[in-house]
Design a protein that fits this description.
Elements (H helix, E strand, L loop, with lengths): L7 H6 L10 H5 L6 H8 L1 H9 L12 E5 L2 E4 L4 E2 L1 H14 L3 E6 L5 E5 H17 L8 E4 L4 H13 L3 E3 L6 H11 L3 E5 L1 E4 L2 E4 L1 H7 L10 E5 L18 E3 H4 L12 E2 L3 E7 L7 E6 L1 H14 L8 E4 L6 H13 L3 E5 L10 H9 L3 E4 L1 H10 L2 H4 L8 E4 L6 H11 L6 E3 L34 E4 L11 E6 L9 E2 L3 H8 L7 E9 L5 E6 L3 E4 L2 E4 H9 L4 E11 L3 E10 L9 H13 L7 E4 L13 H8 L14 H8 L9
Parallel strand pairs: 4-17, 6-7, 6-8, 8-11, 11-12, 16-17, 16-18, 18-19, 19-20, 29-30
Antiparallel strand pairs: 1-2, 3-13, 4-5, 9-10, 14-15, 15-23, 21-22, 22-24, 24-25, 26-27, 28-29
Helix pairs in contact: 3-4, 5-6, 5-7, 5-12, 6-7, 8-9, 11-12, 14-16, 18-19
């Protein structure tokens, strides 16, 4: 891969004035101090064994790691515990039943406050309902739901029974849902009539009905349906199959509110979560019980400096993604946190909706994605300024590398220039955070995830697996197993080995490019396939995007590499302009010159296209694959996961007016 093009703005960020020390009061009372790094360095396995004690085990483990069959790990293998008990029951038993577990906020403004005692009763009822539907330990349950409390309750009910769940994001198509049901051999599907999206009911049940007509889904015997929107199923294109379909309120609410959870082996499967694969076939990432819960619980406690007695935590991710699994359901609830669960989008019914929610619930910790932060930047500084955000004491970033401009805006306009920002790197496959500042320890740098967390071994290597020196770039790898690591790809051990462990012997290859700065801190550069080869130079799409967004006329940017016969790849950029900026003559040349000034002439985009919007999934991720299709004049692939597929029509309509080249 070689060194990534030098970024002058990156060098500027390393100046002392661009570092932000932890606030004195936070540092003095932090959950985790610098001693954690020393403890983990001296005895890594002993460190994780100590963190496992934060959980309640029916049979405490005497083993920590079994790596004898690498790369297949076993953590705490002789221990037994129940995940749902750890997330719900033990808090009630410890006298915290009246503490609010979930503040639910519907998109239209309806709200519910669910205490831990109420959550215990609802999870027990749901578990009893699944038993009545014939669900046994080991049976897989597919969950295709909106962002409502019943989704979390369903996850916990499955965990209570030892029935691995497979959540499928509610924006996925019937075909995608069928593929995942088939691969996991799910026997029950839990869904809803629909959810609310941008002020309107969005049906889900019809997609389930269609999915269950596909080959490979014949083993589904029951569909449990939450009534959320009340829309007529037939009018929405759905059906009702007697003997298979059952309403949640009719089955669950008549169940007993008590259920005794069973303890399962630490390596018992907890969930399968599908992620994209280069072959086109989704990969079913398998996570198990004890190691996963140990690490998500610890990292939620450490990275967010959680004080469960006083904090109100809000992770804005969808539960259908791994961030929602780890930092909406299992991490926060295992720690007895009070959290916010929001159904809708950040701009419905107005662009201040998120900040209105922060003000309403006194949110103290906010965890969101750079894409969302940049959208808020685009809408204007005046919008968050209308709300009281003084309750916020810590901000987090997740999902992709955050450009320094967005980092600074986030801290200034949301965090009042006082809150630490924890920029976290991790993956569906890692299960929990791997790289992040610790808010009471780390002097943070805008745009950098900085260091591996205590107990995690990560570095950057070159093509020959040699660790690169400070100031150089390469590939991010993990050199030691970690508790929340994926155990395999469901049903395909060889693909697990080939995908993650074959590139560099004995090392987990994350698929991300990274560079070390002069301090040895790590800067993520995006997926390796998002590093462009231009005239023999490797240029990160993230760095070009960051350079574009640093221009005062640009709100958001997405960069892709398009095949070019002269330079191997040409840099193509799609930009959203800030409000009030006109797409006048000379703008594109101005932006190209700005990138050249920031990164060097080799990084100057060959094509820059101002657009009204970028193609995004409902989780807020930019679909760069579609932008590559546009840049290379290919037919578009599946656009069903986009929030608004008409965005691609608008982008394609602008193709004839692309700028000149030099």
């Amino acid at each position: 891969m070689g060194d990534v093009v030098s970024n002058e703005s990156l060098a500027n960020l390393l100046k002392e004035e661009r570092r932000f020390d932890p606030p004195a009061d936070l540092a003095a009372n932090a959950n985790v101090t610098a001693a954690a790094y020393e403890q983990a360095a001296e005895d890594r396995l002993g460190f994780w064994a100590e963190q496992a004690k934060r959980l309640t085990w029916q049979t405490p483990p005497t083993q920590t790691l079994d790596w004898s069959n690498a790369p297949f790990a076993k953590w705490f293998a002789d221990g037994k515990l129940n995940v749902a008990y750890n997330c719900v029951d033990r808090h009630v038993e410890n006298g915290l039943g009246d503490r609010v577990a979930i503040h639910f906020e519907g998109e239209s403004g309806d709200s519910r406050a669910i205490t831990y005692a109420e959550l215990q009763r609802e999870v027990s009822r749901a578990a009893n309902a699944l038993i009545e539907l014939g669900v046994h330990t080991g049976d897989r349950v597919a969950i295709y739901m909106p962002m409502i409390p019943e989704t979390v309750i369903a996850m916990l009910a499955c965990a209570r029974l030892g029935a691995p769940h497979s959540l499928v994001f509610g924006g996925f198509s019937a075909e995608a849902l069928a593929t995942r049901i088939n691969d996991a051999d799910a026997r029950v599907v839990i869904t809803a009539d629909g959810g609310y999206r941008r002020g309107k009911p969005s049906a889900l049940k019809p997609a389930v009905d269609e999915a269950l007509t596909k080959p490979g889904t014949e083993n589904v015997r029951s569909v449990l349906v939450v009534r959320r929107t009340g829309q007529d199923l037939a009018e929405a294109g759905g059906t009702w199959t007697e003997g298979r379909d059952v309403w949640w309120h009719e089955l669950v609410e008549r169940q007993s509110p008590t259920h005794t959870p069973e303890a399962f082996d630490a390596e018992h499967p907890l969930f399968i979560l599908y992620t994209s694969g280069t072959t086109g076939k989704p990969k079913g990432i398998l996570h198990t019980t004890g190691g996963y819960l140990t690490q998500v619980s610890y990292t939620h406690h450490a990275v967010f400096d959680l004080k469960p007695e006083t904090d109100v935590f809000w992770c804005t991710a969808d539960v259908g993604w791994v961030t929602g699994h780890s930092y909406i359901t299992y991490g926060p609830l295992s720690n007895g946190a009070t959290e916010v669960l929001y159904e809708g989008t950040p701009d419905t019914p107005h662009q201040g909706r998120w900040w209105e929610i922060v003000q309403k619930y006194g949110v103290t910790i906010l965890y969101t994605a750079p894409t969302a932060i940049r959208a808020c930047m685009k809408w204007g500084d005046d919008i968050p300024a209308k709300y009281d955000l003084s309750s916020l004491r810590l901000l987090g970033s997740v999902g992709e590398p955050i450009n320094p401009e967005a980092w600074i805006w986030y801290r200034k306009h949301i965090g009042a220039d006082r809150t630490p920002i924890v920029d976290t790197w991790w993956q569906t496959e890692t299960g929990a955070m791997m790289l992040s500042p610790l808010p009471g320890v780390t002097a943070t740098k805008p745009g950098s995830a900085q260091v591996a967390l205590p107990g995690i071994a990560a570095t950057v290597v070159d093509d020959d697996a040699r660790e690169v020196p400070d100031g150089a770039g390469g590939y991010l790898v993990l050199t030691e197993p970690w508790p929340s690591m994926l155990r395999t790809i469901w049903g395909d051990d060889q693909r697990y080995i080939d995908t993650y462990w074959s590139r560099f012997e004995g090392k987990y290859f994350a698929g991300d490019g990274a560079k070390k700065d002069s301090d040895g801190d790590i800067w993520l550069l995006g997926r390796v396939d998002d590093v462009m080869l231009v005239s023999g130079h490797n240029i990160s799409t993230t760095e070009v995007e960051s350079a574009l967004v640093s221009h005062p006329k640009v709100a958001e940017a997405a960069v892709v590499g398009a095949t070019d016969p002269q330079t191997t790849q040409a840099i193509c950029a799609f930009v959203i302009l800030r409000g009030g900026v006109e797409e006048g003559a000379g703008l594109v040349d101005e932006l190209r010159a700005h990138v050249a000034q920031q990164l060097g002439p080799i990084a100057k985009p060959k094509r820059i296209m101002p657009v009204a919007e970028l193609p995004k999934t409902r989780s807020g991720k930019i679909m760069r694959r579609l932008l590559r299709d546009v840049a290379e004049n290919r037919d578009l692939g599946d656009v069903s996961t986009l929030t608004d597929s008409s965005v691609m029509d608008l982008i394609q309509a602008k193709l004839p007016s692309t700028p000149g080249e030099d």
